[in-house]
Design brief:
This protein is α/β, with parallel strands linked by helices and 168 residues long. The protein is built from four helices and seven strands. A hairpin with a 5-residue loop joins strand 3 and strand 4. The chain starts with 5 loop residues before the first strand and ends in a 7-residue tail after the last helix.
């Protein structure tokens, strides 16, 4: 079987509210069994983006979504269960496996993993990777990478929303 072609696309948001809205738009493309790796420095927008994903997927208020840094995972029920994990306190993939996080990658829910780079060896492929970076105090660059079909769909959804935000 040939490997899928990888694609990268970058988008810019100018506020936390736009980052939430971006997550809501992208949520329309997620489905049961998807795994999303979220990467970026502390405060770069990972949890803010997850608020939008969860609101878009399950209709819960964004205020209910908090970083699971100290508990490792929050579950948000709805059409699909959303497993929101945070690997910040973990040293490596073996610690994540010992904590039982691996099983949530293989469910009929959606796994969202902040600080995914810490447990990269444990995470399945294919997956959507979203990297966040500071552009300035308010703006964030959000880079999507994954198979070409998924990234093309994300481009279409975000270009329809705010075409002037496209970076690459």
């Amino acid at each position: 079987m040939p490997k899928s072609i990888k694609e990268i696309f970058e988008f810019k948001t100018k506020s936390a509210e736009e980052t939430v809205l971006c997550g809501m738009r992208v949520s329309s493309l997620l489905k049961a069994g998807d795994v999303v790796a979220l990467k970026g420095d502390l405060g770069s927008g990972k949890t803010t983006f997850v608020r939008g994903l969860v609101k878009g997927l399950n209709g819960v208020s964004g205020e209910e979504v908090t970083s699971p840094t100290f508990v490792l995972m929050h579950e948000y029920p709805g059409k699909w269960s959303i497993y929101h994990m945070d690997s910040y306190r973990l040293e490596n993939a073996e610690e994540a496996r010992a904590a039982g996080l691996e099983e949530f990658f293989y469910t009929d829910g959606i796994a969202l993993v902040e600080w995914a780079e810490r447990i990269e060896a444990l995470m399945p492929t294919p997956r959507l990777t979203i990297e966040f970076r500071f552009l300035n105090d308010c703006e964030r660059g959000i880079r999507f990478s994954g198979d070409i079909h998924s990234i093309e769909k994300i481009k279409q959804v975000l270009k329809q929303w705010l075409p002037q935000k496209i970076i690459i």
